[in-house]
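ok so for the tutorial part 2 we go from a plain amino acid sequence to predicted structure tokens. step 1 is just haveing the sequence, like this:
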Amino acid sequence: ENIQSGSGNDLFNINSNRAISLYGGAGNDTYVFSDGVTLNGSIDGQSGSDWLDFSAFTTARNVVLTGLGSVDGFNGLEASLTGSFANIDTITATSSHQDTFTGANLDANFAINGNVVYTSTGHTLTANAFETLNGGAGSDTFDVSGAQTYNLNGGAGDDVFRLENDATLTGTIDGQSGSNTLDFSPYTTSRDIILTGTGSLNGFAGIEFSIIGTFDNINRILGGSGDDSLSGTNDPGIWTVTPTGGSYTSASRTLTFASIETLSGSGYDDTFIIKNGVTLPGSIDGRGGTDTLDFSDFLTDLEVTLENGYVNVFHGGVTSIENVIGGAGDDILVGDDNDNVIDGGAGNNILAGEGGDDTLWSGTGYNILYGGDGNDTAYIAAGGTYIVPLNDIENLLAAPGPGPEPKPVPVPVTGTECCATEKQPTLIVIDIESGDQTTLLFAGYLAALLRLPEGNEMYFGFLNGEVATLAYFDTFTLEKQLPEDTALVFGIAYDLSHNGVTDTGEKAGTTLSFVVPQGYDPQDLMIARWNDTTKKWEEITSSYEPELETVPAHCEFDPRTGEGDPHCLFTPFNQTGIIGHRIAVVTVPGEYVLLVKAKSADLTCTTGDASLDLGTTGVAVPCSGAGELKALPVAVWTLHDLPADQYAVSGLQFYTKVEGQVQPDLAEGQTATLSFDLPQSVTGTYQVLYRADDHQAWTVVSGATQTGDTLQVQVSQPGTYVLMIQP
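step 2 — the prediction. this is what the tokens look like for a chain of 727 residues:
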């Protein structure tokens, strides 16, 4: 039996089990089922907007679409019909039961915003009051807006689950088979995606705060415009980061991702492979295990410091990374207190292990190696050259290749070897004491670096058997008058002899480096040489190189050829109390001094004070209407006869000049205010000592007062003042 309606809007109330098929005609027709009713037949809405209404049912409904309607809407099946339905545009399920809607085996879109609008190939159907939405065998897109409660299942095909900005889903997402995408790209706030394991069929399972449930069988994740993070499963993983996204592989599964700023590994060993050109807006956290940053694909220069997490191409740095592999550029790679493995790769690199028992792999370029604390090992590639400036690598081995096993690299009895494994040594670094004589003859080496205990150094670009002597001198032993308005910081006498004959001629390829201690303004320093002809100290050309917090800047000097700038050899690694180096090329032996020039302040003012800030010390003198105030820091290590049970912290010398003449006293009735910064890490009793010149005894200055971290004292005599501490 069939019922065919006309062109009007018809209402079919199906109140009992009937064997009949219903045809809606051209109008907007509604088919309302009473609870428990079965229609033994089919329903065809035909043209118009037609509606199947199961809202009266007290049991869950399961609607399955089978294809496109011949006129509009969709065809499908539901258990309350023994036949099928066709050309239906709206379906309403029950209000309080777990109803399921399954799309057709077509590429389709689920627009989920309260109700569900299902579209495919120009046909549309609205699904109301369903709790579970299933995709068909095609590629489905589930687009969630607002706060929704659904379980979403992709079915077969490559499905996309997109959450619009601020959307939340109470329920689960299951991509099922196919290659499935979880898409947060519309989001403007940060997403925190955590993978909890492999998917039941493929991909991965996990959680995210906008999904109040879980997701499963996801193969691709897209972040939004916020700072999004992705955490791997608790299994070993391999992360590959590219300029446009990346991938994560674990347990033989692979997930791809894009627009993710922060990556977190597992409690096991993770490797993060960073492809050339990557600039990561966020950070990488290796978490537990022994984790590796692999930049072997990189072509540009890198700077990585595991100790503080700095990576020059990561805005957020790294944490919990133990190993680093450099790229083809000139890299600076620094470890931390763990047992690090640091591989410089190609290029001319600086590798520093820091604490722990570290392993350094030096490539075929020119490498500067620092072991740091611990029992460290360095492998040197065949054809590579290196230096170990601090002599702090215990084991030097030839890098293993396809041939023999690694073998020890020969090390000289004194100093630190720098050579290729092909027995082509280049530079030897030797620690000496003041006054030591060193014969500049080391078989196979091309250059030598002599280092005095305080860190002052001299580089020799010739090794022809000359005997070099380096010795300190200070103001107590110096008989030559220093230039006006200067004070001595360091003095070095440098002599050369050959076959017992003193060599006073010019020697190309010699460079002197003075360390610049804390408390000095590098711009106030100069290097001078004593000219025996003019009987004067003459300033020579010098340059300042600042000390870096981690490692020295890349060394462009090649001792094999002599090409480049040798100055970069003079930057020791994290030397305490050193802010930089004053460096000069010296062509003849002789006496050289590092001098500090006095700062000046005008005293021609009539009111107030003239003051000078010297860094850790300072002085203020009342205006006198004439002359100028001069002051300079004092190198406390050059001072003699200080109390043996105390330590010198800092010092200054000040005086006044009128018409170019040094005044023995301040203006009548005036006192100067001296200030000293107190050290943060030392406690004890402070006092200030004074003397007018180097040949007088020290006297204690009374009346010092402490305000916070500063000690001040009023004095009436120019001269040298030193802050002392008795622990």
